[in-house]
């Protein structure tokens, strides 16, 4: 992040972009390796990973006990919830509120979102919270 004039912070858009869909994050979830993905993208990726990694043993299916991060390939232990659906796996990873706040700040700075308390759409005109001018 580079600092610009008047106290504004310029955020590099790649920090706001999901590595799976290449769009701005929606409900970013963070894996233990600290890579983040949109909740829906991660859910789909986990579902596909389970489908490829599950092993059929007779009439039962053994689900993987590890999930591999799509960015760094770090194995993540998921044995505690591997018997649950992929949608439930996703909710086990924390919501990245820092990224959500960065997205809000960027949208405020672009005038594409208003500040809830004061309904101002200008970053510099708002007097609330950490984005005071």
Q: Which class in CATH terms? A: Alpha Beta
Order of helices and strands: EEEEHEEEEHH
CATH homologous superfamily title:
Zinc/RING finger domain, C3HC4 (zinc finger)
Look up the CATH topology: Herpes Virus-1
What is the helical fraction, as a range of percent? Answer: 25-40%
Overall 3D shape: elongated
Describe the structure.
β3 and β4 (36-38) form a beta hairpin. The chain has one domain (2-131): Zinc/RING finger domain, C3HC4 (zinc finger) (Herpes Virus-1, 2-Layer Sandwich), CATH 3.30.40.10. The chain has helices at 39-53, 86-91, 97-110; strands at 2-3, 9-10, 28-30, 36-38, 55-57, 60-62, 66-68, 75-77. It has three helices and eight strands. It is elongated, with a radius of gyration of 19 Å. The two termini are 18 Å apart. It is α+β, with helices and mostly antiparallel strands. 26% of the residues lie in helices and 17% in strands. The model has no long low-confidence stretch (mean pLDDT 79). This is Tripartite motif-containing protein 56.
Q: What is the fold's blueprint, element by element?
A:
Blueprint: E1 2-3, E2 9-10, E3 28-30, E4 36-38, H1 39-53, E5 55-57, E6 60-62, E7 66-68, E8 75-77, H2 86-91, H3 97-110
Antiparallel strand pairs: 1-2, 3-4, 5-6, 7-8
Question: TL;DR?
Answer:
The protein has helices at residues 39-53, 86-91, 97-110; strands at 2-3, 9-10, 28-30, 36-38, 55-57, 60-62, 66-68, 75-77.
